[in-house]
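Here we describe the complex-level prediction in full. Unlike the single-chain runs in Section 2.1, the two entities below were treated as one system.
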Amino acid sequence: MKSKTRSATGRLLYAQSGGVTAVINATAAGVIQTARAHRVPVYAAHNGILGALREELIDTTKETAAAIAALRHTPGGAFGSCRYKLKSLDANRAEYERLIEIFRAHEIRWFLYNGGNDSADTALKISQLGQAMDYDIRCIGVPKTVDNDLMVTDCCPGFGSVAKYTAVSTLEASLDVASMADTSTKVFIVEVMGRHAGWIAAAAGLAGEGPDAAPHIILFPERVFDEAAFLAKVKATVERVGWCTVVASEGIRSADGQFLAAGSTDAFGHAQLGGAAPVLAALVKEKLGYKYHWALPDYLQRSARHLASKTDADQAYAVGKAAVDYALAGMNAVMPVIVRTSDAPYRWKLEAAPLDKIANHEKKMPDKFISRDGFGITAAARRYLSPLIRGEAPPPYGREGLPKYVQLKNVAVTKKLLAFVR
Amino acid sequence: MKSKTRSATGRLLYAQSGGVTAVINATAAGVIQTARAHRVPVYAAHNGILGALREELIDTTKETAAAIAALRHTPGGAFGSCRYKLKSLDANRAEYERLIEIFRAHEIRWFLYNGGNDSADTALKISQLGQAMDYDIRCIGVPKTVDNDLMVTDCCPGFGSVAKYTAVSTLEASLDVASMADTSTKVFIVEVMGRHAGWIAAAAGLAGEGPDAAPHIILFPERVFDEAAFLAKVKATVERVGWCTVVASEGIRSADGQFLAAGSTDAFGHAQLGGAAPVLAALVKEKLGYKYHWALPDYLQRSARHLASKTDADQAYAVGKAAVDYALAGMNAVMPVIVRTSDAPYRWKLEAAPLDKIANHEKKMPDKFISRDGFGITAAARRYLSPLIRGEAPPPYGREGLPKYVQLKNVAVTKKLLAFVR
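The structure predicted for the assembly as a whole is:
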């Protein structure tokens, strides 16, 4: 029987972790299509590593080839994601024993974890279980994060699309502001994602070049927010150009270390932010008296599959494919990373990098990417960023004017174990 | 000489007014291309009616055919817009005399004013000047507003594109929230434009159908905000579906008539709003304890030419063309309006409607478009809205990954008069 033959060679478990992106499902498509080509059945964990701990597994073999292909243009996380970080083996051995129990019960031989820094850490810990717990499991990390802050890889799948969304939206809204500035809004502020690294804010800089082109001011978390210098530049820009577009990272902080936006903390203990834009707007209104508008696209920016970068969508698919190739080749504790071999023409390839070089590290914007006054990007930043937003990869649209995003059946695998109580 | 011949027949003056849209320049393309076909030279007023009062005119004959064609896919207002309402003839005769003086000096025989309710009022006043001031001027209003609140016309150019943006963004962000809800955001709130009419909020309803599909709650300015009913529905939705998407119009008010978002007033005396979403989010957090995110796309929604509705882009072009046809046929004080002749298949045509039926009126959402509980749209609303977001009309993209939006030369016409001092 077919299923018998398959079971004998084991299954591959794929899980999505952390904040999802416009193209994480393209990675899922790369994983599942490649595994299918090798006749390896794929289970997906429901809601990331939590699905594995809870034995909530999804049988992707129940999905049609067309549905899996449609993942390539569907945003969000098709199997659910989670914000949950495994403790160390010493601190919570029971969780790891549970995972091995699940893997054994379902003959999981390969585990692919698709996420950012924290997920690379989880993947690294699981990759070390084989020896520690005498079960043959290979674990591959698969890169994903709109924050673009993973080490080693030249860029992160998910970032190019939010970068393109941010650059295009900044350009479009600035055309709007330019037409209205005579009698209406003079200062427009967009707040973008990026807790500790200003990659997304920097990408807005691709919208224009030269001192009079929008965005006129970019506020990076890598630079202390200097109120006086900011206001002086807003004023000078409005007086010279007639209006001013500001792009602010959510993570900007004043000299005393306080975030401009107050916030709570997420499951990883990260501050959860939002709301620097209205603070800046109030400042502009109070100190300069200019009429303002502000925007905070929030999830709209990272889910905007309709405006995905083709470079990004291609890379997202490729890392999924490579991760399966690595796993089936017997590799362990690695991640496929993007290596840039040329800026112009832009060329890239994939390589396997050890997870311990990536887990828990965070890549900041290089100093040389931020202009001397701290409010813009340099030519070096443009050279780096520009290829990442190139090309369009629009989803197919239906007759009703909406993209044809797929909803998988997500058939649950029958549980074999008792519930896990932590 | 060519210019002599042209002068003899007079010029057409085109001006953009009020908040701009993703497709108002498509109307400009319709105007200029049609006038060129009739060998009528077009001047554009810089920043709407103010440009006419200040004699700041732009000679569009200096633009190439390619540049004018590119207007069809460029957002914002290519000639600048303004928020400025002419007083009545009795209240400020000097302004009207100035306009006639400008028209006479530049041989303007046709004036096309592209805007919303207030602009239709300005157009109507100018159309009455011919008799009052003994100068042969024909004035045509051209419809434009993302608010979709003009009377007579079935819909307004500009609305279909912001409707499509809102429906697609709601769909995409909801896929994101659905994947994260287990350990992260459970309630996502998007605030959309719409001061007094909930047309844009209603369009978000096209993202899904049925009680479990996003958006689960739409808050209309046509309904008093009922905190208890809202919270009860959020709670029931999270408990049933696992998460909840809320789309809120900026104009929602509580029973005492207060806007949820505090605000200032614009030049027309309208309240300028923004910030209902964070108020709702704080409410959800405080009363229900759910983790939330909120988005406020602001200008991004009305300038998103990259996601324009083809229906809308086509209608925007068509009203520009029709306005020139009406003007050259000697009509006065009318506006080309969209008449829907069939829902399925969707069919429409243009007709000339008298400006006095449109000026200063405001069309609200019909009661029958809002579901009985006040939190959703009806089948009748879907029938009306659905055709308006149909079809895609993406701009061409350049090699750098950005849309190829045109920047006109905007060559100023030499002034012939002394400055006007009001």
